[in-house]
Design a protein that fits this description.
The structure holds two protein chains of two kinds.
Chain A lengths: L1 H37 L2 E5 L7 H15 L4 E4 L8 H12 L6 E5 L2 H8 L7 H7 L7 H6 L1 E2 L2 E2 L1 E8 L2 E4 L1 H7 L8 H13 L3 E3 L4 H16 L1 H6 L10 H14 L9 H9 L3 E5 L3 H7 L15 E4 L6 E10 L7 H12 L1 H11 L2 E2 L12 H11 L1 E4 L9 H17 L2 H14 L3
Parallel strand pairs in A: 1-2, 1-3, 8-9, 11-13
Antiparallel strand pairs in A: 3-11, 4-5, 6-11, 6-12, 7-9, 7-10
Helix pairs in contact in A: 2-15, 7-8, 9-11, 9-17, 11-18, 17-18
Chain B lengths: L1 H35 L16 H5 L4 H33 L5 H9 L6 H11 L10 H8 L16 H27 L2 H9 L4 H12 L1 H16 L3 H7 L8 H11 L3 H32 L1
The chains are: A alpha/beta, B mainly alpha.
Chain lengths: 430, 295
């Protein structure tokens, strides 16, 4: 009996050795062939597959291939809003040390996870060569730097603190002025409720975190909000308690949660709900023809303003491209980053994507309607970074905030939310 | 030599799968448990050994107790519902329904669909809008004049997970029916006749004769459903996404590993899922091994 077991173990071990030997041998052979190819192919990893964004990427691709005849663009986009699935795949690629030539990441703390893990190469040489520090706003450059090194090239800017509303619903409810402060906002929500419409539409749980960042900015003010992400943050103080109580009040006017942000925005467009606080990607959804949008007319079917209490501040988020360490085609990646950084590239991409360029010297005539407003504010407003979209907090911290808000939506316990947020800040390791 | 010749070819035949299972199942399991006992709370750090700290610490987290509660509610409703419905369907079939083959196929069809597809459809059916905004089942209730039945479905804070079990019951009860039907057919007609002669009602025949004989079938069904239920991930993500209101350990594990980048926490949750599943599976294996040896 015992000898039989020994034999089984021996055969198993022998089998395992054979397997590993095969594995090793196979690798050597396989690595050869793509290398020859890799000189031409540039693998660009993104999550731009939806209407608008995919068109923008294609426009940049055309410029890239025109300027670099020897290189071909390889689109490694993975579908899924805000890069949920793409980033899970990217994590495994980076851990296996097989990075794409360049990948998309939210500028800010989200990118800093990759920087700390040593996945990225600094691109200061590009900034010096193309004098990019003069054309990008200083705060944006700060957010993508660690210890004086810059790690990515921002392509676009989105605004998070936008309040979308239905002018017709407001008129029927007797709200004559667009609410500019949190108090006015709550009064307006109450009037809409009396009129029998949904005062504020919301989607799945992440949209509640999106709402939270606007309320925090509006209630605390820009200075205090920006301080939350520094060493002298105050998550436990009375100002935060008041902000979270405001949040609770505002959330009490929210309608039934919808499946995602689009159905929530649609409630405003259809006149079922009065307000929705969502990033400016909602503009494309409202405005684009029925193929990918709702085909509504701006200013009559829907209108916008900075979310209450945040006038004069631009809460931003930005997509940027990186240079991973060990990129198979580093020169190709650098050529792509040059296109992504250029005025031509950004002006081709952004009007299609429905965002504004990160550069300050863009051609303003290309940006009309909402985008013209956004471009004007981006140049003149104070800046604050988004929470949910990776600017101010790293992934671990953001997940903890999402967890706290998700639990709060059930318990409605402000004290517990504040404790959870304070703990999240303390444990973030940021 | 002859002894070797007797067992060696057999062993060689199965050794690839032994190796594969040793590496990819037990090797990975061991690696996961080791990871769960370290403080590797981000992808960069090395992770020192901390013993059972993660296993104990996780119980302080509100989200963990919530997701465990959800998993229990989901499992009880799903397993109970699928067993009851499957048994009822099998009972009706057994009574000599006309067109039995057709019905059997219809009830088995949902098994052929993946949980993701089921989830996408039921996400719409179980939309939480009520009143004017109702769609899906709530709209159906509205049209039938049964407005009082409208509710929040999986968004209900107390019974949301029970609603989440409905699509799972819909999908798996046909399979349970097939198991029971095979079991019913295996009960010798003489036993039933003997009971009837002794004055049993038809109901008593099932309760006192057939059901006890079906205990092994019930047990297999319980175990198969139980381990599916504890690992539930795809259905829940397809219906509601990764939201706290329908959080279960498997979803929490995904969030810990891929969103929060905390490998040790993810491994801890994975270890708990394995332990919970083995509570179902191991006694069954022991029991069936013993039975085999006896026969």
């Amino acid at each position: 009996m015992r000898r039989r077991w020994m034999a089984a173990v021996a055969v198993t071990v022998a089998g395992m050795l054979t397997l590993t030997a095969c594995g090793g041998g196979g690798n050597d052979g396989a690595a050869q062939s793509p290398q020859a190819d890799a000189a031409k192919k540039v693998e660009v990893f993104s999550w731009w597959t939806g209407p608008g964004e995919a068109d923008g990427l294609k426009a940049m691709k055309e410029i890239f291939e025109k300027q670099n005849p020897g290189l071909t663009f390889f689109d490694a986009a993975v579908a899924g809003g805000s890069g949920d699935k793409a980033r899970a795949l990217l994590t495994s690629k980076l851990q296996a040390d097989t990075p794409p030539d360049t990948f998309q990441g939210h500028a800010g703390a989200e990118l800093q996870g990759y920087i700390k893990a040593g996945d990225l190469e600094p691109v200061n040489f590009l900034y010096d060569e193309l004098k990019l520090k003069d054309v990008f706003p200083q705060q944006l450059v700060d957010q993508i730097s660690v210890g004086g090194q810059i790690y990515s090239v921002p392509v676009n800017i989105h605004r998070s603190n936008v309040m979308w509303f239905n002018p017709g619903v407001l008129k029927d409810a007797g709200v004559t002025e667009v609410p500019g402060t949190i108090e006015e906002f709550i009064a307006a929500l109450e009037k809409v409720k009396q009129a029998g419409k949904v005062p504020l539409s919301i989607g799945s749980e992440w949209t509640a975190v999106h709402l939270l960042e606007s309320v925090l900015l509006g209630s605390l003010g820009t200075e205090a909000y920006n301080q939350l992400w520094t060493a002298n943050s105050d998550w436990s103080g009375p100002a935060m308690t008041k902000a979270l109580n405001d949040y609770k009040t505002i959330l009490s006017y929210a309608g039934d949660p919808q499946d995602d942000w689009q159905p929530a925005a649609k409630q405003v467009a259809d006149g079922e709900a009065a307000f929705n606080i969502m990033g400016d990607w909602a503009y494309g959804y409202f405005h684009n023809p029925p193929d990918g949008g709702l085909g509504k007319t701006s200013k009559t079917d829907f209108d916008w303003a900075p979310s209450p209490g945040t006038g004069g501040t631009f809460m931003w988020l930005s997509d940027s491209f990186t240079l991973p360490k060990g990129a198979p085609n580093r020169d190709g990646a650098v050529a792509w980053l040059k296109v992504a950084a250029s005025k031509e590239g950004q002006d081709a991409f952004n009007p299609k994507k429905g965002s504004i360029p990160a550069r300050k010297d863009a051609d303003t005539s290309l940006y009309t309607d909402y985008l013209a407003d956004a471009l004007k504010d981006w140049g003149s407003n104070k800046l604050a970074g988004s929470i949910q979209h990776g600017v101010t907090v790293n992934d671990a911290w953001r997940t903890a905030i999402n967890e706290a808000v998700g639990l709060f939506q059930q318990s409605k316990d402000v004290a517990a939310l504040q404790t959870a947020l304070a703990d999240a800040a303390k444990n973030s390791g940021q | 030599m002859t002894r070797v010749r007797r067992w060696l070819p057999g062993l060689l035949l199965v050794s690839p799968s032994i190796v594969a299972i040793a590496v990819f199942v037990y090797g990975m399991l061991g690696w996961n448990f080791r990871l769960a006992m370290t403080d590797k709370h981000d992808e960069v750090s090395e992770g020192g050994f901390v013993g059972l700290e993660n296993f104990i610490g996780i119980w302080d987290q509100q989200r963990w107790s919530l997701s465990v509660n959800h998993a229990i509610v989901f499992t009880v409703v799903f397993v109970g519902g699928a067993l009851a419905l499957g048994w009822l369907l099998a009972f009706l079939m057994e009574k000599g329904l006309r067109g039995e083959g057709t019905f059997r196929a219809i009830y088995l069809f949902p098994m052929a669909i993946s949980f993701v597809a089921t989830g996408v459809v039921w996400r719409w059916l179980m939309n939480s809008g009520t009143g004017e905004r109702a769609v899906g089942l709530n709209r159906l209730f509205d049209n039938l004049g049964l407005e009082f039945l409208q509710w929040q479905w999986f968004r209900d804070p107390d019974w949301g997970m029970a609603a989440m079990a409905i699509p799972a019951i819909w999908q798996m009860s046909g399979y349970v029916m097939a198991l029971f039907l095979a079991g019913f057919r295996g009960v010798p007609e003489e036993l039933r006749e003997a009971a009837r002669v002794d004055g049993c009602t038809e109901w008593d025949v099932y309760r006192r004769i057939v059901l006890p004989l079906l205990r092994p079938v019930t047990l297999s069904a319980l175990i198969i459903l139980g381990h599916i239920s504890l690992k539930a991930f795809d259905l829940i993500v397809a219906v509601s996404g990764k939201q706290i209101i329908t959080d279960v350990p498997a979803v929490f594990m995904w969030v810990a590993v891929f969103d929060a980048h905390d490998p040790a926490k993810g491994a801890t949750i994975a270890a708990y899922i394995v332990i919970a599943v083995s509570i179902f599976v191991v006694p069954y294996l022991v029991w069936s091994l013993r039975k085999e040896r006896r026969s």
